[in-house]
Design a protein that fits this description.
57% helix; 8 helices; binds ligand Z5A; alpha/beta; 5-stranded parallel β-sheet; single chain; Rossmann fold
Length: 211
């Protein structure tokens, strides 16, 4: 069976990271060799970019610089980690990918979609085969991350910014129903995990059926 690329997406505090390991274990239990990564990050270069873009002291970063930095990290991750994994028949699981740029830099910051699409073609090269979108009301997500007591540079944005991020994610999910599965992330953790595992099982079944 050839490798597949799965991404987890959602707004602040949506619970992606909480579910990521469960999804990895589920895939492994199906006999799949899984590489787990995250964005921005996942390579030495990408983690250096992450430290810059999430640093709350860096209030000077422009929307254009932020967009380019996200794609610089992504270009490295795809070539260094994801493409080699897929070529070797492994599966790749990423906490965020290009949909986050459409949601945060496109929806949140108002960067033109066509510009993001150009960068996607040139720098990202690949699209996920399956994307789990963890969706919940902005106020709930912000209350969850607020309880952590510290905020990164992007978490310092306004509620309106995160409403635009959520709307952009939902719009993308509606436009690509074959790739996206939307999970109600306001449910208790056990229910969210259960929903994610059911989606993963059904997806692996469908891939095995055509292999
Ligand atoms: N970003 C971007 O702008 N453009 C891009 O192209 C890319 C990224 C790729 C990454 O930082 C930031 O980069 C991100 C988007 C931007 N924005 N910010 N800030 P990150 O990786 O550190 O941040 P994140 O991905 O948003 O992580 P997060 O806010 O922690 O969200 P999460 O991973 O979805 O949530 P979590 O850590 O699993 O859960 C958050 C808290 O909620 C935690 O205390 C949990 O115990 C709790 N939780 C989780 N699920 C539940 C349920 N179901 N009920 C109750 N409580 C729960």
């Amino acid at each position: 069976m050839s490798g597949k690329f799965i991404t987890l997406e959602g707004g602040e505090g949506a619970g992606k990271s909480t579910v990521l390991e469960v999804v990895r274990v589920r895939l492994a239990s199906r006999g799949l060799d899984v590489v787990v990564t995250r964005e921005p990050g996942g390579t030495a270069f990408g983690e250096a970019v992450r430290a810059i873009v999430l640093d709350p002291a860096r209030r000077d970063i422009t929307a254009e610089s932020e967009l380019l930095l996200m794609f610089a990290a992504r270009a490295q991750l795809v070539r260094e980690v994801i493409q080699p994994a897929l070529a070797a028949g492994r599966w790749a699981l990423s906490d965020r990918f290009t949909d986050a740029s459409y949601a945060y830099q496109g929806g949140g910051r108002g960067q033109p979609r066509a510009r993001i699409a150009e960068l996607e073609d040139w720098a990202a090269l690949i699209k996920p085969d399956l994307t789990l979108l963890f969706d919940l009301p902005v106020a709930e997500g912000l209350a969850r991350v607020g309880a952590r007591g510290h905020a990164d540079r992007i978490e310092l944005e306004s509620g309106d910014f995160f409403e635009r991020v959520r709307a952009a994610y939902r719009e993308r999910a509606a436009a690509e129903p074959a790739r996206f599965r939307v999970i109600d992330a306001s449910q208790p953790v056990a229910a969210v995990r259960g929903a994610a595992c059911a989606i993963i099982d059904a997806y692996v079944d469908s891939v095995e059926a055509v292999a």
